[in-house]
Structure formats: structure tokens, C-alpha cells
Amino acid sequence: MKSQKITLREPHPRRSYEDACGAAHALDLVGERWALLVMRELLLGPKRFSDLRADLPGISANVLTQRLEGLADSGILVRRKLPPPASVQVYELTPWGYESEPIFQALGRWAARSPEHDPSLPLSAVSLLISFRTMLDPQRARGLRARIGFRIGDESYLARVVDGRIDVARDELEDADLVFAASAPAIAAAVYGGRPLDALEAEGALTVKGNRSLAKRFVKLFPLPPKIAQST
Amino acid sequence: MKSQKITLREPHPRRSYEDACGAAHALDLVGERWALLVMRELLLGPKRFSDLRADLPGISANVLTQRLEGLADSGILVRRKLPPPASVQVYELTPWGYESEPIFQALGRWAARSPEHDPSLPLSAVSLLISFRTMLDPQRARGLRARIGFRIGDESYLARVVDGRIDVARDELEDADLVFAASAPAIAAAVYGGRPLDALEAEGALTVKGNRSLAKRFVKLFPLPPKIAQST
DNA sequence: CGGCATCCGGGAAGATACTG
DNA sequence: CAGTATCTTCCCGGATGCCG
């Protein structure tokens, strides 16, 4: 009888703050490094393992594996196999997982005031689209009704603006009034960096198809909050 | 000439997600373990090092030191010396730091739906009072106007309810309509655990001074969101 | 006593290579 | 493509000790 090494997957009692405060429990669930960013990337629909890796530059495969396991154990996302002929593994937020969006909005709104925030860093398509939901100024969008498409990489997203509110989804762009085709950072440069559309088009970073004056209005709808006063 | 070992405090280029997304930058600032909980404890006013240690069971002194340094470097809090005769070091959020409260509300509201959330764990006074701001149901508080005091340990807090809204501060309790004296978890048991006030008073965990029917109404003002449906 | 530096052990994160 | 295996590095947590 050989001495057998049993690797019983003792499911490591996750480290907890042992605090009844709801925020503390949230951190028990999603406070580990990369966890919230994995969730963010799924906010507009399911993705595959390698999509997540590509959209989260810097995450390593084993950390991504661990986070997906942990988030699935907590009921925040599920592993699902798409029906044939796709038959591919994807990760998808549960309904409760989708309810986490206000967390990202609160974090994003607050951190946008940081003097160290650098909007010129890389940015994923999902981050950009979610930021539209967060930053839309209802005043400036008043009376506007438009369907605006985004072609980023080989995904397409549709934003519907209806009197002061905006909705965003991965979707086809058939009847959009306007389509931007560009990388996410290029669109961010127009919306948040104040770069003129003409300049971005001239350097080939972005193209606008459709209602051009609507495009010029759209990029003004998302004012950033003022940076904090620096004492240094 | 002796060879001198210079330990120039190279201020460790903090690990960053290198991501333009506002939420990602927020995590660069406050994503380290304990950082948000330190901020939470300061949301109702400045505290000393040892108060923070006491209110954050489990944090170690060196981690607290590191977090306070990091948060101060980021402009989220400041070290301040109270004027004589107190002459004591305290840590206080900056105006921008105080603006982080919506983050705690979003986290708390979301995590309260987790099946693993256990409201009977230890709870700090600040957590409890902030949770009132988060969870008040404006419907149930409609038409109510009251000043409700809390004596927790040797601190006192005052909540002012004015038609559907609540404000909370560390304050004296002179003209409160009602004062609860208890530990934070005992008050939480009444408000969130549904324990009857009479039972808690009977076991000596809590006392009510003043308008008793107001007390019974107050503890009903903060309904918890429904837990998520469990597939297990 | 309050605040902070230092050392140490364990564990989580990061990088790289490898496998079905 | 979707992960595992392995190794290294760094962070967290605990203990001790210094110094005002």
C-alpha cells in the first residue's frame, strides 16, 4: 500500500474582516486585487477567459483563474457554456453581479477628482461605455434623442440617449444615427481629453460615420468633475 | 572614508493598474487591504491612531501606519495636531476624502444582499451611524421630524431625521427627543436584526431614554434589501 | 502611552513555461 | 484556447523594541 498524498481541496477559509458593516463584507467578497476589474469587464455581457486576459493587461492567468473561481463561489458570476455550434466557455455576471454597477460609478466619480488620475492611460471598451452611463450630464442631454454606435476592435456597442438618460449595450449598429469607429482611448481623448474630432480623424485615430454635428454634441455630454485643490 | 550605506527612502512606486478607468484609479488609491475601512472610521470626524486600532479589530499597527501614510500622500486624509491643551495627533479626512461616502453606500447596499452577510458580527459605531444614512427608507420616514441620540462607549452621536432624510454627526445630546445607550451591535440587533427593544432592555444590552414610541418607530425605518435567490 | 521602525513567517500576486 | 505548474517577489500580519 503506497502512501498516497491526498490533495483534498480544502477550500481555504477566505480571509475576512469579520465586520458586520456592509461595506466590509463587500470587501470580503470583491476586495482582492483584480476582482472588481474582472467584474467591470463583464458588465456589458459575458466574455471568454482570453477576452478577459486581453482586456485586463497585467493580470496573470493564474490570478484570473482564482478570481473567477472566487467570484463564482460567491454567486457573483457563473461559468457557462454557450450552446452549439459555439460551444465555448464564457463567464457571465449573475443578476446580483450586474447590480454592482453603482459601485463602479461611485468609485469612478470619486477618483476622477484625484490629481493623479490620468485619462490618457489604456482603457477597455467596457470601461469607456460604462463611464458614459456614469458621467452623462442630464442637463446637457436634455431634449436629445439619438442612437449612437461604437465600433471598437471587432465589437460594436450601441448607446441610446433619451432625454437626459443614456443606455448602453453590446448590440448591432443597423439604425444608429452616428457611428464612431476607433480604439477606446481615442474615443476617450475626444470625450474626456477635449481633443477635437477633426484632429483625431486627421491622424487616423478615429472615424465618424453619419450625423456629424450630433457627434460634436455627443462628445460634450460628459463633463469631468473638477480636480481637487492641491495644497502642494 | 567609510563606505556608507544610504537607505534613501525610495518611495516605492506604488503598484498601479495602469488603467484610465476611474474605478481602476480609485483602486490604485484605496484598493489595498484596510484602506477603505480606515477611511470609513474617519467619516464622522477625526480620530487618533489608537482609536483607529481599537475600532478596526484585526489591523496591525504597522499596516495602519502604512495606510495612513499612503492615504495622506494621496490627499485623502491629513495628519493634524489638535490645539493645546489637547495637543494630540489626529487623522482627519480632507474634503475630498469625505466625498468618498457614496462608495461605502454603494458597497454596503450591494453586499447587504449577499447570502453570506452576517449582521451579527462586530460593528463599529461609525459603521452603524453611516448605515443609517445609507439604509433610511424615505417612505417610512415621511413626515417624521426628530432628534435621536446615541451613546456608544463614551462617544455620543446625534441623528436628525427631517421628512425623509437623515443627517448624522458626532455631537452632544442635549435636546434629543430620545437617546439610545448601548453598544453598536446591540443597536444593530434592534434595527437590522429585528430584536424587540424590550428584549434588549431586559437583558441589559440597551437602554432607551425619552420618547419610547419614537424609538419603536425609529428602529423600523431601515429595511434591509431582500437576499438574493440561492440556486444551491 | 502613542507612534513608528525592524525583523520574520506565511500567503497572495506576478512572471514564465508548460499541457490537454 | 483555456487554463495548470512552478518559481520568485512582494504584501500582510504578528512580535519586538525604540523613542518622544
Poorly predicted tracts of residues of chain A: 1-11
Strand content of chain A: 15-25%
Q: Assembly state here?
A: homodimer
- Please give the share of residues in helix of chain A: 25-40%
CATH superfamily of the largest domain in chain A, by name, is SCP2 sterol-binding domain
- N-C termini distance of chain A: 71 Å
Query: Which protein chains make the most extensive interface, counting residues with beta carbons within 8 Å of the other chain's beta carbons?
Result: A-B, 58 and 58 residues
CATH architecture of the largest domain in chain A: 2-Layer Sandwich
Number of helices of chain A: 10
CATH class of the largest domain in chain A equals Alpha Beta
Q: Which fold name is given in CATH as the topology of the largest domain in chain A?
A: Nonspecific Lipid-transfer Protein, Chain A
- Domain count of chain A, please report it: 2
Largest beta sheet of chain A: what is the strand line-up?
5-4-3-6-7
Order of helices and strands of chain A: HHHHEEHHHEEEEHHEH
